[in-house]
Amino acid sequence: KAGVTQTPRYLIKTRGQQVTLSCSPISGHRSVSWYQQTPGQGLQFLFEYFSETQRNKGNFPGRFSGRQFSNSRSEMNVSTLELGDSALYLCASSLFPDKETQYFGPGTRLLVL
Amino acid sequence: QKEVEQNSGPLSVPEGAIASLNCTYSDRGSQSFFWYRQYSGKSPELIMFIYSNGDKEDGRFTAQLNKASQYVSLLIRDSQPSDSATYLCAVNLYSGGGADGLTFGKGTHLIIQP
């Protein structure tokens, strides 16, 4: 069974631009969570989607948004990029919103110049 | 503000010895606890989860939970060089799923010396 896939794997943007990242969960998984990982703050929860509904959201500004499609694929969008948004963005999927079966994708590394 | 604290290390352990990784958390209501392993340049991989006080063993790994003292630990027996990685502790307010995301510690960098 294929794992979680994320596209693109690497991205370079400039301040003020916006970016959309994509995540395809493991086949059959309906829950997708997004995380931001930086050397300074570590791994931080962004939001979680299940059956196209956002179940909960971490402590991030409104510039960070996401959505989930009927096929469980998910996208996250960051508008008006700031230098501090440079990070590894990880997506994780699970059958249901249970963390015991959560599998991470390889991540998208975003660099904001 | 929920906090999960880990010693960043590096923690250096000789091959074959027991590696002991510790984690404390601030929210007394936390219900589920997870250990992830992350190799350099790779994504986190779940090793174990624990809900109840006491020990939970899986192969060379043992997770220990003490809710009264608000700490969780991971023991790795017969440490191997392949165990060298960053170990992330994560805490959830609810058991399993639930309307909450995971709060992660910043990780402990473990080095197993041959």
Description of the molecule:
The complex is a heterodimer of chains A (113) and B (114). Chain A has 113 residues and is mainly beta. Chain A contains no helices and 11 strands. In chain A, strands 2, 4, 5, 6, 9, 10 and 11 form a 7-stranded mixed β-sheet that branches. In chain A, a hairpin with a 3-residue loop joins β4 (31-38) and β5 (42-50). Chain B has 114 residues and is mainly β. Chain B is built from no helices and 11 strands. In chain B, the strands form 2 sheets. In chain B, strands 2, 4, 5, 9, 10 and 11 form a 6-stranded mixed β-sheet that branches. In chain B, strands 1-3-8-7-6 form a 5-stranded antiparallel β-sheet, with no helix packed on it. In chain B, a hairpin with a 2-residue loop joins β6 and β7 (61-66). The termini of chain B are far apart. The mean pLDDT of chain B is 92. Chains A and B meet through β4, β5 and β10 of A and β5, β9 and β10 of B.
